[in-house]
Amino acid sequence: MKYDFDTAIDFRGTNSLKHEFARKWGKPEGLLPLWIADMDFSIAPEILKDIQKRADHGVFGYTEPKCDYYDALIRWFDTRFGYRASRHEIVKAPGVVFALVQAIRATTLPGEAVLIQTPVYYPFNEIIRNNGRTLVTNPLAYKGGRYFIDFKDFERKIVERGVKLFILCSPHNPVGRVWARDELTAMNEICERHGVIVVSDEIHCDLVWPGHTHTCFGILNENAIVATSPSKTFNLAGLQTSNIFIKNAELRDKLKTEISRSGYSQLNTLGLTACQSAYTKGGAWLEEANAYIVGSIRFAREFLTARLPRIRLIEPEGTYLLWLDFSAYGLTQNELDRRVTENAKLWLSSGTMFGQDGEGFQRMNVACPRVTLAEALGRLENEFR
Questions:
Q1: Which residue of 18, 201, 276, 348 is most buried, as measured by CB atoms within 10 A?
Q2: Alpha-carbon span 228 to 226, nearest angstrom
Q3: Could you tell me which residues come within 8 angstroms of residue 182 by beta carbon, excluding any fewer than 6 positions away?
Q4: How many CB atoms lie within 10 A of CB 301?
């Protein structure tokens, strides 16, 4: 490989949320962290070089992107996903979750219902409740080690609860599904039939594994809000840049108005530089990073099959997050969390963070050097064999 993904990086003194804040999160010190969705890889040197060049200028005033920024985005999503955007439909935001909050405020009133599919990325639940909306869940069906959409329940909940907004996670975090086009089409038809607006969180769209294809929801529905960011793809979360695609002018204006009400305007100066650089020069790095992650998933699969067969790996179709089923051990979630944390000395994400449907599960981030992953799996073996 041209790029190095094997070197373990020292995070001491960097204020890394993933590595240096165990105590603040109620965890003991000294845990091996594989929880939050950050990579432990250095970013592409091409991006780093552009950030350094911009930093050398020495002035960090308010910044707006020019046409080449938008052209880089448009080219990336057209080339990779066949989604043809125009400059005017792109709304900038400091993060996908921030954009989801503004979308909730822009398209629903307090008390109105918003639907999600659990187990799912835990901020979905929080931002719905914290903004005074009614949370409605369409639990994913777990059968034979794979997750499926319960379409009957999906439509019934929409009708019975008067759902106004559906937040889709695509690809899905934490269960790792890359929704097939026919699944997305079926959900879209139900939403259109009942006047439900769809916000599609596609932050993991570039992290899709062989045999699977990501379909941008905006291809199916021009009235959708499609939230994207280079953060997961290129490990740039701390630079706070996201790009929201909205073809519908009325809906786009509503979102812009809500963002304006929040008091937010220009994005992070270095974030804009990094985003444009990533979508212009980061393709080769991404291909190697994805190949390395696929190798790590294979390594974990073979390890669990040979040494910990009672831990069931839910085969990931996308994302670098493994969803691990520990239910064969018959432990409560508290017992499972305690053994993982206190005995195995690992910091994973507890399954119930993603909803009660996550009972008996742990989420593990494998976007790390292979030696780190091997150490983590060895600790699980020592505790659960």
A1: 201
A2: 7
A3: none
A4: 14
- Total-model pTM: 0.97
Q: Two tokens at 357? A: 């449907």
CA pair distance 121, 123, nearest whole angstrom:
6
What pLDDT digit, counting tens, does each position of 134-174 carry? 999 999 999 999 999 999 999 999 999 999 999 999 999 99
Contact status, residue 171 vs residue 319, Cβ threshold 8 Å: yes
Pairwise CA distance, residues 107 & 255, whole Å: 8
Task: State the average pLDDT over residues 330-354.
Answer: 98
Q: Which residue has the tokens 């080690």?
A: 145
Beta strands in 87-170 (DSSP E): 90-93, 113-116, 134-137, 141-143, 146-148, 163-169
Report the C-alpha gap between 215 and 317 in whole angstroms.
13
Amino acid at 360: G
What is the Cα–Cα distance from 183 to 161, expressed in whole angstroms?
22
Domains and CATH numbers, the chain: 17-44+284-384 (3.90.1150.10), 61-281 (3.40.640.10)
pLDDT value of residue 1: 86
- The closest of 7, 16, 11, 41 to 290, measured between CA atoms, is 41
Phi, psi of 349 (to 5 degrees): -95, 120
Give buried/exposed letters for 172-191 (b at 16+ CB in 10 A, else e). bbbbbbbbeeebbebbbebb
Q: How far apart are CA 348 and CA 37, in angstroms?
A: 11
Give the separation between CA 127 and CA 103, rounded to whole angstroms.
11
**Rounded percentage of the chain residues whose pLDDT exceeds 90:** 100
Question: Positive or negative CA dihedral for 150, 155, 161, 165?
Answer: positive
Over residues 313-330, the pLDDT tens digits come to 999 999 999 999 999 999
**Separation between Cα atoms, residue 71 and residue 374, nearest integer Å:** 41
Cβ contact 233:278 at 8 Å: yes
Three-state secondary structure of 45-80 = HHHHHHHHHHHHCCCCCCCCCCHHHHHHHHHHHHHH
Q: Say which DSSP state 359 is in.
A: T
Q: Are 243 and 65 in contact (CB under 8 A)?
A: no
Residue indicated by tokens 């294979």? 298
Q: How far is residue 328 from each of residues 5, 305, 325, 358, measured CA to CA in Å?
A: 34, 14, 8, 14
